[in-house]
Design goal:
Elements lengths: L8 H14 L8 H13 L3 E6 L7 E3 L6 E3 L6 E9 L6 E8 L4 E10 L2 E10 L7 E4 L2 E3 L1 H4 L12 H4 L6 E8 L9 E8 L10 E4 L1 H7 L8 H7 L17 H10 L8 H14 L2 E6 L9 E3 L3 E4 L5 E10 L6 E9 L3 E10 L2 E10 L7 E4 L2 E3 L16 H5 L6 E8 L9 E8 L12 E5 H7 L8 H10 L9
Parallel strand pairs: 6-11, 18-23
Antiparallel strand pairs: 1-16, 2-3, 4-5, 4-13, 6-7, 6-9, 7-8, 7-12, 10-11, 14-15, 15-16, 16-17, 18-19, 18-21, 19-20, 19-24, 22-23
Helix pairs in contact: 1-5, 6-11, 7-10
């Protein structure tokens, strides 16, 4: 659709995002004042999370027939059992607890021009599973049960900009998956909406430029997962970059982002490769009662469901008191990973254009067998006793990477509304010059421009790859935060 000056709405929105990214600071909330603002918000939000026995959860119960953990309304989510069969030669069949949440939530960021500069509206929000309590989240981060008022609490602020009948056309609007290891077929609607009229920031919300947000993405446990998945969908710059053999890392990065040069894996070849994997790899998901996971090493106690080997994760229950949320207190189950994970993207220049090594990764709860994931996407301790042939490819190279070749290295929290102290080390590593060109049957080299194009569609890039791409975008700004 053409608008003023014959330019498409997509071009106008793209220019707004790039203008926002170009402003690494703002007079609205300068980065020099951000820490004080965030500390003040944390002090004004009384917050306590207490682990409790399952039997003490108010509003939740263990179904007498299945053992599933369910809410009295039948809404929100449940914790059930899943039987998974794959074609993997090692540990190819297992059962596990999994979160079942068929509702499509909204994770949306509001954008508006302030003083001629596009700003993004983010919220300082506390989630029960956050390591540090308060983190920056999207303007709206709500499940269907939340925004339809099943909890009986207050309305979700700014929701009318995303779901109201008079909302503006979306800058970004796409369904995206969430963690397939712990969710069954979970999707959220990722959105960026431009507000044409003045919008005031309520208490706990702040206007920041995209450039500011990208600098804050270099800090541990600050930008939450829901904000990162939306930011990962922001298209990279289109400005042409000169391709030179042996050019700087920054030049290679910009060439990759802007679509210059030839990709090692053409997009039509990539889509055929992924379709082939999805059609011939075996992933059979069969819901089973939560009690049935006991047969596969899961032990059920009064306070937790955990694997006998101490691996993977445990299911726990918490009582939450949060004075600045839609409801003042609640109880719920959470999934607590046994250890932090590693999410690594190996990159290298091919013909002067930076390429990223991605994998087609199966997930227990994946909606379509496999999605594109970072080079390495795992909890290393889960593979401590795995035969050498079945360790995740390139994991050892990532763990032994030369610090001089690490371009991005941040520890970031995963979704604190469902996961307790879940985090991953997100790292981008420039490969050694002799790194293998032939990565194997389940990995491919792609440009950043290709990955950005796939983000316009559902079910191509997993949530960890979207998060690490949000981090890659920060590498185009050499400034410090």
């Amino acid at each position: 659709m053409r608008i003023d000056g014959g330019r498409s709405r997509e071009d106008v929105h793209f220019d707004m995002l790039q203008a926002s990214a170009a402003h690494s600071d703002s007079t609205i909330l300068p980065l020099g004042e951000f820490d004080s603002w965030l500390t003040d918000r944390a002090q004004k939000q009384p917050y306590h999370v207490t682990p409790i026995p399952f039997a003490e959860m108010v509003g939740w119960h263990s179904d007498p027939d299945t053992g599933n953990l369910v809410h009295r309304t039948g809404r929100f989510f449940s914790v059930e059992g899943l039987d998974v069969q794959t074609d993997r030669e090692w540990a190819g069949h297992w059962r596990q607890p999994i979160i079942v949440q068929p509702e499509v939530g909204v994770v949306g960021i509001l954008m508006r021009r302030i003083g001629g500069v596009p700003h993004l509206l983010l919220q300082a929000k506390i989630e029960p599973g956050n390591i540090n309590g308060i983190q920056l989240s999207p303007t709206v981060q709500a499940t269907w049960s939340n925004y339809t008022g099943v909890h009986g609490g207050r309305d979700v602020p700014y929701l009318e900009h995303f779901l109201g009948p008079g909302r503006q056309p979306a800058v970004v609007d796409v369904l995206q998956s969430e963690q397939a290891a712990w969710y069954l077929h979970k999707r959220n609607r990722n959105m960026i909406i431009e507000a044409r009229e003045p919008v005031e920031a309520r208490d706990g919300f702040c206007w920041l430029t995209l450039g500011q947000v990208r600098r804050l993405l270099r800090r541990d446990h600050l930008i939450n997962m829901d904000a990162r998945t939306v930011l990962g969908c922001v298209p990279p710059p289109r400005s042409p970059a000169r391709i030179e053999a042996g050019g700087s890392f920054l030049a290679q990065l910009r060439a990759s982002m802007s679509g210059q040069g030839r990709s090692e894996t053409p997009t039509d070849e990539l889509l055929g490769w992924l379709t082939d994997i999805r059609s011939r790899r075996r992933l059979v998901q069969r819901p089973v009662p939560l009690r049935a996971v006991r047969e596969y090493g899961w032990q059920w106690g009064a306070n937790e469901i955990a694997h006998r080997d101490g691996k993977y994760f445990r299911v726990m229950a918490v009582h939450v008191e949060a004075g600045d949320r839609e409801v003042r207190w609640w109880d719920q189950p959470l999934i607590a990973p046994a250890q932090p994970g590693v999410v690594a993207l190996i990159v290298k220049p091919i013909n002067g254009v930076l390429h990223a090594l991605v994998q087609a990764r199966l997930g227990a709860g994946a909606a379509n067998v496999a999605e594109l994931a970072p080079t390495v996407n795992c909890q290393p301790d889960n593979y401590a006793d795995a035969p050498e042939a079945f360790r995740p490819p390139f994991l050892d190279e990532v763990l032994a990477a030369d610090p001089q070749r690490i371009r991005y290295d941040v520890v970031l929290s995963e979704e604190g509304g469902r996961f307790y102290h879940a985090c991953n080390r997100y790292v981008v590593i420039e490969a050694e010059p002799d790194f293998a060109d032939a990565p194997g049957p389940y990995h491919r080299w792609l440009t950043l421009h290709q990955l950005s194009g796939l983000l316009r569609h559902y079910n191509y890039l997993n949530v960890e790859l979207r998060s690490v791409l949000a981090g890659v975008h920060t590498l185009d700004d050499p400034g410090e935060c």
